[in-house]
Amino acid sequence: MQLQDVSLGYLTKREATLALESITFSVEDGEFLSILGPSGCGKTTLLSIIAGLLTPTTGNVTLGNQTITATSNIGYMLQQDYLFPWRTIEDNITLGLKIKGVYSETTKAAALNWLSQLGLADKKDLFPNQLSGGMRQRVALVRMLATNPSMMLLDEPFSALDYQTKLKLEDLVFQTLKKEKKTAVLVTHDIAEAIAMSDRVVLLSPRPGRIHHIFDIPNDIAKALPFEARQHKSFNDQFQMIWKEMESLASTS
Ligand SMILES: Nc1ncnc2c1ncn2[C@@H]1O[C@H](COP(=O)(O)OP(=O)(O)OP(=O)(O)O)[C@@H](O)[C@H]1O
Question: Which ranges carry the ABC transporter domain (predicted)?
Fold first, then answer.
């Protein structure tokens, strides 16, 4: 996936806001990339552009050789799980298949297999309000995987969870996406989460959102499970380095 000189301005009746300016980077196939930055720097806007939901004012975004659009095969996992409360877990995880017109015995079996791999086989006939927050996010992960997307977009998917659940789910998501060799882009406020999960971290500066720096996470951290990565002796050095850069942004904005 490639972003080339992407800028986006929001126009309201009162004012024009340049939310993003000259954003250029690429994400390699199978790479896990995080976008980090202070509130209002344009992270969600950037993710919406990558998803094809917003069209950049200038520049372009391509996946393979094609410009990304809202119909590109991209999966989402968001802070809220957005499961439909009146549908069973099975109906929720197969809904995307039905919408895309690819629902069949084979694709349904694959979705149920994911549910089983993520430890929720016995929950398929329950409704979302009968599950814990962590389980619901696992269902959201299954729903995303069921349509076999080319790329996964994760917008703060762990931030509403308690700390223990969050750490466990980070490992599960990381392991699953790596096993499937999926390309993933994560938006987060959390420096430690970005380091623990990613191959690279893009730090945005605010007003307008620009690339401040792209950090390469050393392999011994990037390739380890997030929980193990957090225990690594050089993890804290990475944290301090990115923390200082974020602090410098806060003091200049
Ligand atoms: N629909 C909109 N109309 C006008 N301005 C907008 C709109 N959405 C976002 N903005 C502005 O664009 C800028 C970037 O917003 P965005 O939500 O992308 O930032 P963010 O980094 O995701 O913030 P946060 O971390 O707080 O969620 C902000 O100045 C915001 O006020």
Answer: 1-231
Q: Which residue among 15, 35, 43 has the greatest number of ligand 1 atoms within 8 angstroms of its CB, and so is best to mutate?
A: 43
How would residue 115 be classed by pLDDT, with cut points 50, 70 and 90? Answer: very high
Q: If DSSP codes are grouped into helix, strand and coil, which group holds residue 36? A: strand
Ligand 1 centre to CA of 227 (Å) is 31
Q: Check which CATH number belongs to the domain holding 155 and give it.
A: 3.40.50.300
**Each residue of 152-188: pLDDT tens digit?**
999 988 888 889 888 988 998 899 899 989 999 999 9
Output the pTM of the full model.
0.91
Contact 128, 139 (CB under 8 A): yes
Our count of domains for the chain comes to 2
| ipTM of the prediction | 0.96
Q: How far is the CA of 46 from the centre of ligand 1 (A)?
A: 10
